[in-house]
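Q: Convert this sequence to structure tokens.
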Amino acid sequence: MKRVNNLYEKIYDMNNLILADEKARKGKKRSVGVHIHDKNRDENIRKLHEQLKNKMYHTSPYNIFEAECNGKLRTIYRLPYYPDRICHHAVMNVMEPIWMKIFTSDTYSCIKGRGIHAAVKKLKRDMKDVGGTKYCLKCDIKKYYPSINHGILKSILRKRIKDIDLLWLLDEIIDSAPGVPIGNYLSQFFANLYLAYFDHWVKEELHIKYYYRYCDDIVMLHSDKSFLHNIKDKITIYLEKRLLLQVKDNYQVFPVSSRGIDFLGYVFYHTHVRLRKSIKKRFVKKIKGSIKLVEQPFYASYKGWIDHCDGRNLMKKLSA
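A:
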């Protein structure tokens, strides 16, 4: 795959920075950071343009705090809206179409058109092959974001990027915090890129037909249980030696028919898909005392979850 060059000027181009500002503020227009930035919006964009052009940009100090995410306590690294979030969006405006070409079709999470429900749709379709999806290997990576090695991540970026000025900026952002910090806009893409060539190895070298990765959550399906145990050993060695990552000890190889695949908020069987109990309980808890369910602000979100599983009876009970 050819390495790309002459990209850096596109990132600090004024039109790109203006577009980045417009994208970065989506859903955050009432935030303090946006409010402060807008007091000197034009001047701020001009300053960021000059900082990037002259390679004087430096990542701002992080606001670091603990927050619960999917039932787990995470360390969150938050950067100011200006200049950092705008800068990250400016990078993504240019780099996203280039990086997208690296991902296999089995990679989901933080990719346009490939969120949770795209993965759910693909898995449901694949499970029509009952014989070929008889057993499941399910695993994830221990402390994935904090464990990402900067040197390895930089070498992965250099497989596609030749532009030394752009690499300077990406290195500056990468080295601004240990691992890849949860909360950074670019972190979600760095995390996907770190495993992108692992995905290719799984598909092209191991020839795994039914494979799904959502960030560091991995599911593989096959007709042979012993085959999946062998694959687990191979991916463990690959991740440890090439990426300095560890597969969690709680990995599972099991028959799909008896347990179902608990993945992405759903439990998948060959005949049906259920909503994960914890999500269902959360929904039920929220609607207690609600007179008109459809008028609640959370209704559309949870209905979206239920629409992708066999949840008609649940909706009838909740709406009764």
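Residues 182 and 190 are 11 Å apart (CA to CA).
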